[in-house]
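anyone seen this seq b4? input:
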Amino acid sequence: MAAPILIRLILLEARRGGLPWLAAAALLAALALAGFVSAAALTEGRMLQAASMAALLRACAVFLVAAQVVSSVSREIADKGLEAMLALPLPRRTHYLGRLAGFALLGAALAAVFALPLLLVAPPAAVTAWLVSLACETALVAAAALFFAMTLAQVVPAIAATLGLYLLARAMAAIQAIAAGGAAEPSFAHTLAKRAIDVIALVLPRLDAATRSDWLLYGAPPMGELAAVLGALALYAVLLAVAGLVDFQRRAA
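predicted toks r here
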């Protein structure tokens, strides 16, 4: 029964902390952007609306989840609330995984709310695929933010590390394409840099393949492709959760 209580506390804290108002502001900003794009576009206004709204809402969801996780954990550490919770006769994994489940559920709720305006400009099947992918993506971000918040115990470094990891994973495919381009002269340094980038790419999630705006423009991806994307996100989130749990148990021991 402890895990549901932790989840409820996480959601209650988010509501009292003003997260619904921030989500509403993000929705208004997305609708305003859609209206501006519609007025400025000469052709394909609906497609531009869908792409711009999806990109803005995805970025807002990621940032809000990361900020909420880090601020919540940092507040608990500063107020000694975490120490009081650890004094209770509960397994350490329940403390950690209960919080993670609450933050993941919070991200899923944001994804569902942010998907609603996209139904005005995209087919329901495509919006559903985008929603499920964003829910998994925010769960991964929550796992990363919880890991860095527990490890670094400072708000700014933890948010910076979380968003840095996210942006690097998002941009890694483009970085690899640039490194593999033929514009640069072949050299040992260029080859070494290219191989280093490939190694880094192996340990990062393929976020460029997740929550794609073109799904809203050209239709949902095939089920096999979507399942592969969601499976990769889930696997990386589990790895982050395991790493964070091991570190948390070591610190709390």
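The mean pLDDT is 85. DSSP finds ten helices and no strands in the chain. kinda curious what u guys think
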